[in-house]
Structures are given as C-alpha cells and as structure tokens.
Specification:
The complex is a heterotrimer of chains A (about 250), B (about 300) and C (about 280).
Chain A lengths: L4 E12 L2 E12 L3 E5 L6 H8 L9 E9 L2 E2 L7 H7 E4 L10 H11 L5 H14 L3 H4 L12 H13 L5 E5 L7 H14 L4 E5 L3 H7 L2 E6 L2 E7 H6 L4 H7 L5
Parallel strand pairs in A: 3-8, 3-9, 6-7, 7-8
Antiparallel strand pairs in A: 1-2, 1-4, 4-5, 9-10
Helix pairs in contact in A: 3-4, 3-6, 4-6, 6-7
Chain B lengths: L7 H43 L1 H5 L3 E2 L8 E2 L2 H32 L2 H16 L2 H20 L6 H25 L3 H9 L4 H12 L1 H17 L2 H6 L17 H9 L4 H30 L5
Antiparallel strand pairs in B: 1-2
Helix pairs in contact in B: 1-12, 3-6, 3-9, 4-6, 5-6, 6-9, 7-8, 9-12, 11-12
Chain C lengths: L1 H35 L5 H5 L13 H32 L4 H15 L2 H15 L1 H4 L4 H25 L3 H9 L4 H30 L2 H6 L17 H12 L2 H34 L2
Chain lengths: ~250, ~300, ~280
Amino acid sequence: MSGETELSIKNLNLWFGNFQALKNINIDIPKNAVTALIGPSGCGKSTFIKTLDRMNDLVDNVKFTGEVIYKGRNILNSDTDVVELRKEIGMVFQKPNPFPKSIFDNVAYGPRVHGIRDKKTLNEIVERSLKGAAIWDEVKDRLNESALRLSGGQQQRLCIARLLAVEPDVLLMDEPASALDPIATSKIEDLIYELKKDYTIIIVTHNMQQAARVSSHTAFFFLGELVEYASTIDLFERPREKKTEDYVTGKFG
Amino acid sequence: MRALRRSRTRDARERLIQLILLVCAISSIFAIFLIIVFVFSQGVPFLAEAGLPFLTGSVWLPADSFAAGTWGIFPIILGSLVVTLGAVAIGAPLGIACAVFLAEIAPPAIRRVLVPSVSALAGVPSVVYGFFALLVIVPWIRGQFGGFGTSVLACWIILSIMILPTIISISTDAMRAVPREYKEGSLAMGATRWQTIRSVLIPAASSGIIASVILGMGRAIGETMAVLLVAGNSVTIPGSIFAPVSTLTAQIALEMNYATGAHQQALFAMGVVLFVFIMILTGLANLATRRRVTF
Amino acid sequence: MAAKRREMVPMGLLWGAGIATIIILVVILAYILAEGLPLISWHFLTANPGVRGQTGTGIYSTIVATVAVTGVALLVAAPLSVGGAIYLNEYTRENLLRKVIRQAAEVLAGIPSIIIGLFGFLFFVIYLLPYTGGWSVLSGGLTLAFMVLPISLRISEEALKAVPGELREGSLGLGATKWQSITTVVLPTALPGIVTGLILGMGRAIGETAAILLTAGGAIGLIHSLQDPCCPMTLYIYNILTEYNDTSTAYGTAAVLIIAILAITFITDWLMNSYTKKLKGL
C-alpha cells in the first residue's frame, strides 16, 4: 500500500428527484488497497460507487453537486468523457451479467470495443485477464463455449476478467459475492486479495466478516451519510461513533 | 494515459445516430398522415358534392362525370356490414371456444399441433382462401340451395375462417394473462373446470376477448380478395343469404382499374367511408382493452 | 358426479372447436396441395407464362415478381421498423411520443389493404410516376412496405424489450458507447425476435393481393427493371381465375405459394431456435 490517494471525494451530494440519497460525502480512497463500504440496505453505498463511474447518469432525474477528483480532474464535470472514464473505473455487479456470447468474446469485448482487432493481441489479453481473475485453468479449454454455461461463481470471475481486459485502475464491486455460494464467495475474496496489489478496489458489502477479511479501510454509511471512515481494524474494534458501534456489533442492520 | 475530456466527434456521431433512429421511429406516424392526406384528398370532395344521398341511395350507376352518374352506395355499405357481422357471428364463438381449449384444456401433444395450425391459417394468402371458397364452397352452396352459389353465405363461411387466427391468438393471450390465483381459488372451492372457465376465466379475460372480436371484425370488413371472388358483386340489397352481395372493398377493387374521373373519385369516397368504419372499430377495441371489467 | 356429466357437453364442444380448427386447416391445405402439387414441375417453375389464356406454361415471371416486390418492401420496411424500434426502446422512456407511435403503428396495421392500395396508386403510381415508372415493382413494393412496417416495428420493439437491462449496464460499464452497446450486445441478443418479426411481415407481403392489384400493373412479362410492371403470384392467381378460368394453373400457383410461405416460416423458426439455444449455451 503506497499511501497515495486514488480518488478524492469532496462534498458530494446527490438527489433522485426530491430524495437526497447522498449527503455531503467527503472521503479519500487509497490507491492499490481495498476499501469496504458497509451499512444497512438503502443507505447510499451503491449509489455512491455508481457516482464514481458515472453510471448514475443512466437514471432519470439525477442531480449531484460536489467533486470527485481522479487523476487531477473532477470527473463529475459535464465535459468529462464518461465512456473513457468507465475504462479506467470499472464495475462488477451483484448479479453476474455475462453476455450471451462465448467466454472468449466476453473477455475480448472491452478491447474490441476500443478498437483492438489483432487476433494475437486479443488472445494475449484474454489469457492474461482470465489468469488475473483466477479462472484461466478452468476455462482455457473451452473458450468458445457460451459463457452462460458457467456456474454463478465462475460467471462472476468472468465478469471480473472482462473488466481486467480493459486495464482499469479502479475496480468498483457492488456486493460481488452476495449471489454466490460460500465456496465461490471465498474464491472471489481470495481474488480480491490478489488484485489489490495492482488495482484500487472499492467493495460494497453487507457481510461485515467479508469486509474485515479483505479490506484495509472501511467506510460506514447510514441514511446517505458517511458516518465513519477508518482503517478496518480501527472501525471494527475501536469505532468512534455510537452508530458505527451499534451496527458492527449487530444491534441493527 | 487516456484523455478524459469529452470527444466532440464521438458525441456528434452518437447524436446523429440518435437522430436517424428518431426519423425511423416517426415513419409510422408519417405513413398514416400520408395515407389520410392522399386518400381523403380525393374522396372527401366527392363526398361533399354527393352528400347524404351517396350513403343512402340504392342505385349505383357510375360515370365519368358527376352529373352523368347515379351515386348510391347503400347496398354496398349494407353488404359490408352484413358480411362482417355474419362472419363474426360464426367465427367468434368458434374462435373463442378454440382459444379456451388452447389455453386451458388441450394436452401438450395437441397444443403442439394446434398452435402451428393457427399460425399456418394466418399465413394463407387471402386470394388462396377466396380461390378455395370459389372452387369448393360456392359449388356446394349452388348444389344444396340453388342460385349461383356466390352469396352472402359463401362470404360468411370463408370470412369466419379467415378471422379465426386473429380471434384465437389474442383471446388465448388474454386468457393466459389471467392470474393463476383466480382459477385456483375457484377450483379450491369445489367448482368444476367448466364452471371455473365460464364464471372466472372468461369474465376475467373478457376485455381481451372482446378486443379480439372487434379486431376480427376489422379484418373481416377490410377483406378484399376472398370477398371479391365469392360475393357475386351485385350492387343490390341481398334478398336472402343465398343472394349475391357487394362490399365496399370488393367494389373498389373491381372498378378501380378502369374507373376515371368522377367514378374514380367515388371509389375513393367509398375508401373514406371504409376508413371511418375501421377507425370506429379501432376506437372500440381500444376502449374494450382499457376498461377493467369487474365480475 | 352429476356435475361431471354436465361438464361433458361444454367440454366436448371445446374439444370440438379445437379439433375443428385443425381440420379446417388440413382440409384447405390438402385440397390446394392435392390439386396443385402434381402440376409443379421444374418446367412449371422456370418457364414463363404464355400468351394470355394459353395453358401448360410456367409461372417463372410471377415468382420473380413476387420476390422483387417483397424484396423492395423489406428493404424499405426493415431499417425503418428496426431502427424505429431501437429508438423507442433504447433512447426513450415510456413517454407520450412512444405511446403515439405505438398507436400509429396499430392503426396502420388495421388499415385495409385496399385502402393502402388506393393510397399507393395515388402516391406512387401517379404522383411519383417519374421515379417509380407508374404501375411497377417499385410502386407495388413501396406500397407493401406500409403493411410490413407496423408488424415488424411491434415485434422488434418487444424483442428489444426482452433483452435484460443488466447486459446494457455491463456493456456501458466496460466503456462502450450507447450505440456500440446496442450493436454488439443488445441487437445480437434480440435478433431472433427481430428476424421473426421481419419474416412475419414478409409473409404478409408475399400473400398480399389487393394493394398489388392497384399498384403493380399485372403485366406477366419477365421484369427487367424495378420500374417495369409486374404480376406477382397472388395477383396471377386472381387474374387467371377470373379472366380465363384456368383453375389448374391457379392450383399450381397457389400450391407453390403455400409451400413457399410454410417453408420460410418453418426454416426461420428452426434457425432462430438454434440461434437462441447457441446464445444460451444449451
């Protein structure tokens, strides 16, 4: 962990119509580390990470103020190229969503869309990405099979491989293991632990044990506010806020 | 390192694509607009000149100039209505019954035959239906009941067959959409299948069923080729169901290729009348699907 | 028990309705095919019709005419309907414009073919005479496009709607533009439905007569350009039946028509089923 900041969020407020989903969020996300976002359902965690790759733009009636500084510029500006942004900041969703295409075509999708056509290059990228997602050995002999034949856990790792193929800096994960069985979940957690060496990862999770296992920093969201942000050990063992303490000890949630 | 500024050319290209697609989307509206403008531009002036006697007069003696002809299409309008209503009277019960069968009762093996059969019936060209009717139904009527065979009855038979697919497919969809809980609730109270169908399923699906019948009516009144071949095309009020008849569609088709001047405009006027009927039917169908029937 | 017995009558009627429908189809198809199939020979399909009234010739030029007219109709209707469906489903929410367009398509689908023929006559044959050549393949095909458009539009829209939203999110999340997402993910997934819609529209065009009657011209010679008048198979059946009472050629032509339509429908169904299975990895 280098101690550098990858993303710096300042005074972020967001409204869906009249409903304020994010209230004055200020947080610095460290580079090449795993930051976990915890909190009860509907408290803005998913909304928060969707702001970071501008996926909230797809929703009607969204308004936001504040700044998200990434690589020296505020990516919330309207002159930001969101298409390019999403190559740098990628997202894995709760429910794996592989395209109804072959495994190869799924991983090659990103590079192809960005103009890479050379077969040899694509082959290299696909292999490297599948290895990076710890799924190469399981699929290397059936790259031309439909991705929909994979199990849930494999599909999710495929989605991660798909993301790695566009070479992002930041990986946003919205409850990536909540739809998976325990074995698949632990595989994903191992993968996250490996990936953090090269990528900045922000993971939304309902599972506090998971947050404790994989992350170095944790942020606790409640009703759209960032209540507390600290190193994972500090947040769980020595929470400063009462609400945080109530949540991590299971008094509500 | 990738630049994070918006690409103006890519934005412009995406916006151009969106514009092209918008134009494509508006084409349906534009199409109707064109049709109405052109057809009405010919038909409405004639209607204005001919006035009410056009719709109520019984003598049809067209000519090139307005003054030289007699313009009464009442028998033709009546023909369209008679032929349509009869077709629906036969086709709707048969179609709805078949739809119930398909939705509720048919075992999978029969369903596998029946569903493609209905699609196949829908795919048969209207001229082939008319051809079949001319060579099979018309001689049969002639043999059994005398006359020429080309008659109201022949139209009723063939048109009822032709509207079956419409009624069956839309009614089946309507019945399938009825929530299972309604049917299960009825059966759980000890009602039989037929009682459930009659008192729960059909009323619940009634708006869809009614819409299907109205759409079937629209198809029947708009059918040209089959009617042209078996109606007899006599501009008279049919004395019996074995007598020949003429419909708006058939009359237009019959005379359009050699009509000129006022005659041609009169045919367009008939087209306008037909169009108005269709609009009324479409409006009724919409009303039927919008209203929630309580039972 | 008595209830069960009383059931038998209505149940029997319902069964009867279902079976009757199958029987009706079988009777009609059997009749046409029984009389018409024997006439179909290589000669029948490849020779041109002779001088009016002459029997024992072929229907080649009418087949070409049907293909040409249907081709023109599809060429115009396909991009408009698929493009329109893409716009409605991918670029708009459920708003007024969408409802109006949908309603317009419904209305268009319900307009009797003879009225569309009247319009086609005025617009394409008369008004656009210098471009269409009057009564011609072009006039007929363009008129038919008006009938193919609403069918294809409605079915394409449904096919697009059925594509799950997560696929679009996944694609955009990887840095694809909206149009890229549509062409590389959404359209391939919706393709079976879209093709089915186009085939259904095509079936309508192949079987249409009334509109053709007023716009195609009816000349039975082999066409050399799109501006030549032509006589598609459906019109040919009508003409030789009413003018020459040539029932045998009519049967043959009808048989060819039915077989063509059925074959196209079945092959397309099978192709699209295979494609869907391949997509799902089954």
